[in-house]
């Protein structure tokens, strides 16, 4: 474990101690991840009379959903499904069969949050057949795609999708294809010793009430898993950077793209991707998920930009403040801010080097930069405009990675002598001077020129 400085460790410990004491949490285990590896661990309170360790299991609730989503994306990458497929194509005989896989992953399918029947988190689960048979017209609360509406039922259907494609239970598929390759051998669908017991803390007295724990059956993909601080640190590292044995970095980046806004304002502050929650916090763009089950709370937040993250696990039904994870990130930034990587020069293709510098879309000035490799970045020189990065493709074009031009193709059009004439970006023509009359500007250029 890469240790943090002593002064940082004390500040982190103080914040954890305040949380455990003031929120009256029976036990709280916290790991700080830096550069994709555990950098600090602390625990307060007790599990069976002893301090929790990195190997103590806690129930992680809805963090399970990120693991199910990873399995769904593996199926997508294999070509077994398309994210635009209706769920009914893979899980027939459901009254919400028109909702797409992507909508279920991003909680935009409009499905009810909870299944019919008693509170599923505190009662034994039913089979997938019984669950789908209990769904009816009331399962759809909103028009698909209209808005974000968190749905545990949606992930139950995704778990069944995984099971039908793999021919084994969703948990077995996740264990063998996702957890084992990442070394997460202590993440299991049911608890193993040593594990924390779940408690409710009395609101007006310092006494505990044991919470029930059951196999959630068909609803298990929404929140069944148990894990340890050590394993969730590995999961945090995976969510930040990917792992070719499970999912490539590009697919993880796709999962982290905002698909739904949860909290909006001048800019969105909280959102949802494909199976992962998103949060903007003091310049960081965090990805992860929270988890809540009777007797347990957990959260994982990571910043893919510097592979820094926080894992918090507690055995209490309520009380843990949501700010604990971001407060710990703030402490780390205050005491040990990230050091930028060293810059060093790199070789550049002369033809690409020629492309760098100012370009004009009509009268609007842009700057084209050459990134490592053969990638490009287009940014406005003024306060307004559309910025995007572009990945080089084998055919000599570039594909937009983000911003307005995500997915659009950039082509460099050259003159007979090989020099660059203009850039064609999905019909937008960029020239070396504003409205260059020598370039094929759509609509033409007034012969009299500027006046």
UniProtKB/TrEMBL annotation:
Pfam families registered for this protein in UniProt: Beta-lactamase, DUF7586
Membrane-spanning segments: none
Domain Beta-lactamase-related: 21-320
Residues covered by the DUF7586 domain: 349-432
PANTHER family: D-ALANYL-D-ALANINE CARBOXYPEPTIDASE, D-ALANYL-D-ALANINE-CARBOXYPEPTIDASE/ENDOPEPTIDASE AMPH
Name assigned to this protein: CubicO group peptidase (Beta-lactamase class C family)
């Amino acid at each position: 474990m890469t240790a943090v400085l002593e002064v940082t460790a004390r500040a982190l410990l103080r914040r954890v101690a305040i949380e455990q004491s003031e929120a009256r949490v029976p036990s709280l285990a916290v790991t700080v991840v830096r550069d994709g590896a555990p950098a600090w661990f602390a625990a307060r309170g007790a599990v069976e009379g002893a301090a929790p360790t990195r190997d103590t299991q806690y129930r992680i609730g809805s963090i399970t959903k990120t693991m199910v989503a990873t399995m769904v994306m593996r199926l997508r990458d294999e070509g077994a499904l398309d994210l635009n497929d209706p769920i009914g194509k893979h899980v027939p005989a459901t009254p919400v069969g028109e909702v797409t896989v992507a909508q279920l992953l991003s909680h935009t399918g409009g499905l009810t949050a909870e299944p019919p029947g008693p509170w599923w988190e505190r009662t034994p689960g039913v089979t997938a057949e019984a669950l789908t048979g209990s769904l009816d017209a009331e399962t759809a609360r909103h028009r698909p795609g209209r808005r974000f509406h968190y749905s545990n039922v949606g992930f139950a259907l995704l778990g069944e999708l995984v099971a039908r494609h793999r021919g084994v239970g969703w948990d077995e598929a996740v264990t063998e294809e996702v957890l084992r390759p990442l070394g997460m051998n202590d993440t299991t669908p049911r608890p193993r010793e040593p594990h924390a017991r779940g408690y409710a803390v009395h609101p007006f007295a310092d006494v505990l009430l044991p919470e029930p724990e059951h196999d959630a059956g068909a609803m298990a993909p929404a929140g069944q898993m148990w894990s340890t601080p050590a394993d969730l640190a590995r999961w945090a590292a995976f969510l930040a950077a990917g792992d070719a044995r499970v999912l490539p970095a590009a697919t993880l980046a796709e999962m982290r793209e905002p698909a739904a806004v949860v909290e909006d304002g001048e800019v969105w502050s909280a959102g949802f991707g494909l199976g992962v929650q998103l949060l903007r916090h003091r310049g960081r763009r965090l990805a992860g998920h929270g988890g809540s089950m009777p007797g347990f709370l957990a959260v994982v937040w990571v910043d893919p930009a510097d592979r820094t993250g926080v894992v918090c696990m507690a055995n209490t039904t309520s009380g843990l403040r949501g700010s604990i994870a971001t407060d710990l990130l703030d402490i780390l930034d205050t005491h040990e801010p990230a050091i930028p990587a060293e810059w060093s020069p790199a070789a550049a293709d002369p033809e690409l080097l020629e492309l760098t510098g100012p370009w004009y879309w009509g009268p609007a000035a842009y700057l084209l930069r050459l990134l490592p490799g053969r990638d490009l970045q287009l940014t406005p020189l003024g306060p307004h405009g559309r910025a995007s990065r572009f990945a080089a493709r084998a055919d000599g074009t570039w594909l937009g990675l983000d911003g307005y031009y995500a997915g659009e193709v950039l082509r460099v059009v050259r003159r007979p002598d090989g020099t660059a004439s203009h850039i064609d970006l999905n019909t937008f023509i960029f020239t070396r001077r504003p409205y260059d009359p020598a370039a094929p500007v759509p609509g033409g250029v007034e012969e009299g020129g500027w006046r």
